[in-house]
Write a structure and sequence with these properties.
The chain is an alpha+beta fold. It has helices spanning 27-37, 47-56, and strands at residues 2-10, 13-21, 58-61, 74-81.
Length: 96
């Protein structure tokens, strides 16, 4: 089962945390639904976010990525995949 984890961070603390079922490639739709559920404005999804999400399975939205004013420092999303526990890292520092 795969999930998307949304964290609202203010003053270096998680103020709100939500998870939702999400398949790979469906993260934008899940983000919109989770923002509605938490009564948050939806951020702009830029190429920066796309590349970060594909590479690291997580990305961060800052206040300048929202059209409306927000009362938090950043919004983070992370893709959690329970079925991919044995996935090996491509990072050469982990190959020992």
């Amino acid at each position: 089962m795969s999930r998307l984890w949304l964290k609202v961070i203010r003053d270096h603390r998680i103020r709100e945390s939500l998870t939702a079922d999400c398949a790979w490639g469906e993260e934008k739709n899940a983000l919109v639904e989770m923002c509605k559920q938490a009564d948050l404005p939806c951020p702009m999804w830029l190429n920066k976010h796309e590349s970060e999400f594909e590479r690291f399975r997580r990305t961060t939205f800052l206040p300048e990525h929202f059209i409306e004013d927000v009362s938090f420092d950043r919004l983070e999303i992370e893709f959690l995949d329970d079925t991919d526990r044995r996935r090996k890292s491509d990072d050469p520092r982990n190959q020992f």
